[in-house]
Design goal:
Layout lengths: L1 E6 L6 H14 L4 E6 L10 H6 L5 E2 L11 H15 L3 E5 L1 H16 L13 E6 L10 H17 L3 E4 L2 H10 L8 E3 L12 H12 L6 E6 L8 H12 L7 E6 L5 H10 L6 E5 L4 H7 L2 E4 L8 H8 L4 E4 L4 H5 L2 E4 L3 E4 L2 E4 L4 H12 L2 H18 L2 H15 L1
Parallel strand pairs: 1-2, 1-4, 2-3, 4-5, 5-6, 6-7, 8-9, 8-11, 9-10, 11-12, 12-15
Antiparallel strand pairs: 13-14, 14-15
Length: 405
């Protein structure tokens, strides 16, 4: 069975790793899997190295990028041409832009044949995976409505199966926004390479030496792209609030990742006089090392699918605190207690009010409670290792493909 997988760009983040590991895993089984990818915007890390390490040579479409553009017509033609060349049995698209262009090309590939005249279009199944969605907090009202209308049309006319990665995401996309039919959906969680997070205790000192952090310091980290949807100003404002709290003197903060907002964020940190507390580390490829050196992982996003940074943190045995958006709710589990504007859940702290005062209260509460951190470490690690291996991901996807074939 031939699979043609399409993603907009191999930049730092969950979708890129998910797609590369999945492509590699399928090639190790009875499937032939090829990968089409677009270009990575300036300021974002190109994860082409990850594909190379996995022995994958993507087909790059230079014109395919994040934003709507006249070049999308060229992308559409080139992807259609690759479909004609590869003659796939299944087209599987990932992320919003690749999902739009890829499924449109698949629709044309399926129907633009003389056999359509006798009722026999090309045999093809089309799958789209929502790693997140753009139906709130990304764009203005008019643009959001346009994208929602496009997704509804594609779901109805050009998609056989829709994959979401959490139940919360299914409830939002199908229930709240009315995309697709209920029977089209399949919930398949992400999968990651868990072997990266072995020997965390042995690696703990490497990052901490780099930061000049003592054993008593509590190092808090944000891991991810520096982009608007991640709401990193909330993280920086939280650091400022913590700096004024006498119980939070031992907190050190890092930002691991890069993006077009970095200069503005560094400027904001300087204005708030927190540069002695916050270190920008840029993009890193040594996840097993930097997670080992952290004590808490924080996420302040406005919208999420299933954030890879929280899954990786849990797999590494690190407690997490996050705004309660999208798939974060499923990751953190049921609420055990309600505090002052935040909730203590099975596997982390959930902050439902997006302000620095509330987020700092939750963070300080977690930092000051060693017993809670230890319990969340254990619960999160067990949960991640039981549910998010890349082997499980490949098995789940293979089963879906076989059912569709």
């Amino acid at each position: 069975m031939k699979i043609l997988r399409i993603i907009a760009r191999l930049n730092v983040g969950g979708p890129a790793r998910h797609v590369v590991w999945l492509t590699q895993g399928l090639q190790d089984r009875e499937f032939q899997s090829d990968l089409i990818a677009g270009t990575v915007p300036k300021g974002e890390e190109d994860m082409g190295y990850l594909a190379a390490e996995a022995g994958i040579s993507p087909i790059y479409i230079e014109e395919m990028s994040r934003e709507l553009s006249p070049k999308d017509v060229i992308s559409l033609f080139k992807i259609y041409r690759e479909m004609r060349r590869h003659k796939p049995d299944i087209i599987h698209t990932h992320t919003a832009k690749a999902g739009t262009v890829g499924r449109t090309a698949a629709f044309l590939y399926r129907w633009l044949t003389w056999r359509t005249l006798i009722g026999h279009p090309r045999r093809l199944k089309v799958i789209h995976t929502f790693h997140g969605h753009v139906f709130h907090s990304y764009y203005g009202n008019a643009k959001t409505k346009l994208f929602l209308a496009i997704e509804k049309a594609l779901a109805r006319l050009a998609t056989d199966k829709i994959v979401v990665i959490t139940k919360q995401q299914f409830d939002e996309i199908n229930g709240d926004f009315g995309v697709g039919r209920r029977g089209q959906f399949e919930i398949i969680p992400l999968g990651i390479d868990l072997s990266v997070f072995c020997d965390q205790e042995g690696k703990r000192g490497l990052l901490r030496q780099e930061l000049s952090a003592t054993d008593d310091d509590i190092v808090v980290g944000y891991v991810g792209r520096l982009t608007e949807i991640k709401n990193i100003p909330l993280y920086i404002n939280t650091i400022s609030k913590c700096q004024n709290d006498p119980t939070a003197k031992k907190l050190k903060f890092v930002i691991i990742g890069d993006g077009h907002l970095r200069h503005d964020l560094e400027k904001k940190a300087a204005e708030l006089k927190i540069t002695d507390k916050l270190t920008f580390l840029g993009n890193r490829t040594d996840a097993g090392v930097f997670y080992a050196g952290l004590d808490i992982v924080a996420l302040t996003s406005l919208n999420e699918g299933t954030p890879l940074s929280l899954i990786e943190a849990m797999a590494a045995g690190k407690p997490v605190i996050s705004t309660g958006v999208g798939g974060v709710v499923d990751l953190l589990g049921s609420v055990e207690s309600e505090e002052d504007g935040f909730s203590v859940c099975e596997r982390g702290i959930r902050v439902d009010v997006h302000d620095a005062e509330t987020f700092s209260k939750g963070l300080i509460y977690l930092a000051n409670n060693e017993q809670l951190r230890s319990r969340l470490n254990k619960n999160g690690k067990e949960f991640a290792h039981a549910n998010y291996s890349k082997e499980r991901l490949v098995t789940d996807i293979c089963e879906m493909y076989r059912k569709l074939a």
